[in-house]
Structures are given as structure tokens and as C-alpha cells.
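Appendix B. Raw example, untouched.
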Amino acid sequence: MIHVETSFCPDVERRCLDIEHDEKNNLPICHAFAHGQQCRAAERPIDFCIDRYEYPNEKGAHPVWMLDWYEAQATCEAGGKRLCWSSEWTAACEGPDQTPFPYGWERNHDACNIDNFYIDPRKPGPRAQFFFYSKDKDVALKELSRLDESVQSGSMESCQSGFGVYDLTGNVDEWVVSDEPPREKSKWAGLKGGAWGHVRSQCRPMTFSHEPEFYYYFVGFRCCRDALGAPPWTPSPQAIPAPSVEPHDFAPTAIVAEGAPGPSKTKFSRTGKRE
């Protein structure tokens, strides 16, 4: 794990110099920020430990997929850890220089595994579930492998924060515990970092559109824990602790994707065309 001891701004203001509105996902995507920022709330010291890599926290491993929030939390607990608060995740991503991307101030799809063209999932019929949800493990793995545009954890040296934490933006979305008041659908859960597609892929944004029971082919996680001798981090009065789960390893074996295509050879451009 990486020990992160830094100052965290709970409410930061940055000026976007180059913004794109992604119509498909209805998202504003900032491609470049002005250097410098204003903290609109008092900065606080934050001290914790975070996995260097996406779970299973091994360089060169395939990141875990298809676990919901409860299973991710239980798996972290089985190793004496827990899911990260979103503020911990953000602090690790922004690094000591508090940049909006782990690698700096401008969005770069060559630095991290982002902006790939998604491969359309398949299902046996219009009202059926996708094949990757199949109870037949062989059927599910075949489809998961066909869709897999991830890279091995830690394989992109450029995709690390100033603290040396890898793949925080892109590759797979990561479950966290939200710092914000509970929401009707996502409750205390959130997803950070974005996956390998064309999404915001910044340190600050978080997705609240999925319930904790949600699991998907590009959703993973990493674990955190309190630093030895440091007080437990409490992000805000509005945040609620994650519910208790029974420790259990829901990812006991390494994932081996069979013939996965990996990142697309072309990347999403501002016009939606391949480049």
C-alpha cells in the first residue's frame, strides 16, 4: 500500500480552459484546466493508506470486475482493509500538487487507459440479460473477455499520481464510500475514476447513478485503511459510515481473460470520430 499524508481541500474551484459536452452521456468533459485553484473550504490534513494498484493490488494483474459494492467491501475487509472514502481516493489521485488529473492539468488519453470505443455487449434477445451476466461461467467469461478493453494493473507508467498510485483514472471504475449525504439510488456508494471509455476521467467527479447492488464488466475497486497511529478520517458531518459487511473474499482467483482485445487502436476524438 501507499501511505498518503497530505492536505485535502473538500471544495475546490478550478477554471476549465477547454470543455466538451458529451451528448451521449450528457457529461461535461474538461480537456484542460488553468494551473492553480482556489479552495472554497478550509483544507484539512488527511492521513491514510491506499492500494497502489486496482484490486487484487498486484502489478501486472487483471483488475477485478463484476463485484457489487457489498462484495467489494467484504473483500477489502477480508484483507484487513476497507473501501476508500471518496475524499481519500481523490487525495491519492490529485497527488501532492493537487492536480485535476493524476498526471497533471491536461487530459491525456495516452497517459491512462481512456477514450476507447466501447464494444457493444450482446444478449440472446431484446428482453434478456446480457451474456456477461450469465450464470454459466463459461458463457459469461467468453463475453467478458470479448468486451475487455482493460490493461494490466500498473502497466502504464504514465498513469500514476504524484503519490505513486496507479490507474486511478480510466481502466475500470472503482467503488468508494461517498462523502456526501446519502442519495436515493446510490445511498452511501459511489464510483470514481471512470472506465476505459470516453468519460470525465478526472480525480474529483463521482458517479451516483448506480445502486450498491450494481455490478458490471468494467467496475472494480481498490482498498484503503487507516494509517498506523493516525486518527480515522471523517470526511464531513453529512457523510455516513458504510454499513457493516461480513468479511469474505469474493475474488479468490486471478482473472484470466481469453483473447481480450485490450484498448482500441484508435481513440475517441472531439468529433466522435476515430483518431
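End of appendix B.
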